[in-house]
Predict the structure.
Amino acid sequence: MKKKHWYDYLWIWAIVYFTLGFFNILFAWFGMIDFLLPLLIAVVGGNKWFCNHLCGRGQLFSLLGGRLKCSRNKPAPAFLYSRWFRYGFLVFFLAMFGNMLFQTWLVASGASGLKEAIKLLWTIRVPWGWTYTAGTVPDWVAQFSFGFYSMMLTSLLIGLVVMLLYKPRSWCAFCPMGTMTQTICKLKNKEDRKNL
């Protein structure tokens, strides 16, 4: 039996993150750990150690789809693994992230008011309004929280759908963070080979 490590329980982090954000949107900022740490590990280590060991979302999909048998466990369609789909989804994801940053900047500059809305799939407004008390923090901080939590929740739901339909970690095939870290690793390893 494989020895368990502390990081084998990071699926709990994924559940805690989404639960805390459900009740207070400001907890969405903790998601930046999952956004910056994989990039840092890829840049410094030149590997995908985060994806393989620290990704709580991937672990959650493995737990739900594997151990709890919530997955059909069928092979995912080949296009999900294709380069054009992975990089196309990454570009789309980065465009949505850029839009979220732009909306935050508009609020910070006073050009726009705070939009207290969590949106799924970047369009469907979620009808819960208890997640934030106006004036608790500067409006731009709250605006970033709403936007970032929306992105994290949307990607979780997409991951859950592909987990149900296909193998448990099918989301990992086109996860934007995985695509970015893989690209960083390839570039870093190519640079390292050049320097030898």
